[in-house]
Each structure stands twice: as C-alpha cells, then as structure tokens.
Amino acid sequence: RVIHVGHGITGVLGAEVAVAIRPEKIHIGLDAPAQSVNAVQGTVREIAYMGSYSTYDVALADGKHLKVSQANASRHPDGIITWGSAVHCWWDDTAPVVLTS
After folding, report:
1. pLDDT over threshold 60, residue 6
2. pTM (2 d.p.)
C-alpha cells in the first residue's frame, strides 16, 4: 500500500527510510540543551576551522559520527569546544529530511 505523508514524500507502509540532517542545522555545545528530544552526546574527534565557521566530527557512543557546522561568532568564545571535548548536539524538529529509495 502506497502512503503519502506530505511534503512530496511517498512510500510504502513499513518501508525502511533514512533520515538526514544538514550539518549546519545541528547545534553543538558543552552544556545540555534546556529542552530537546532531538539530542545526543559525543566527543569531538576532529575540528576544521574554515574562517567564518568550523566543522566538528563528533563521535557518538554507538560508534556513529556526526558532522556539525557552526558559525564562528567571536574570536575568543567562552567555553571553547576543542579536541576531546564532551559535547551535546541537538536539532530542531523541522531539521531532519526523510529519504526514501
């Protein structure tokens, strides 16, 4: 049975799907977010400084990795995230995109 779930997504009930979130839609910080069901914890393994933004490779406990991009708002931010930092990553409900085959 084919189902239509909105936003142009069509699929078969029970089919496997993948969910993707763009790296710039994921927030990163040293402290846990006030409220978010869309949150994970991990450790920063790599950082790439790109001038106006940095990208972080965050290793999760289950062995998966997240790529997170964050704007560099100030030259010397308080509570700097660096290699080996334990971090929290979270995203808004509207950030994920469902991918079907």
Report:
1. no
2. 0.80
Look at residues 14, 4, 65 and name the one whose alpha carbon lies nearest to residue 40.
Answer: 65
Counting every residue, how long is the chain? 101
Q: Do 38 and 25 contact (CB within 8 A), yes or no?
A: no
The SS3 call for residue 23 is helix
**pLDDT on residue 30:** 93
Q: Give all strands of the β-sheet with 39-49 in edge-to-edge order.
A: 26-29, 86-91, 39-49, 53-60, 65-71
Q: Which of 92, 95, 96 is nearest to 35 (CA)?
A: 92
> 59 by DSSP, 3-state: which?
strand
| Burial class for 25, CB neighbours closer than 10 Å (0-12, 13-18, 19+) | middle
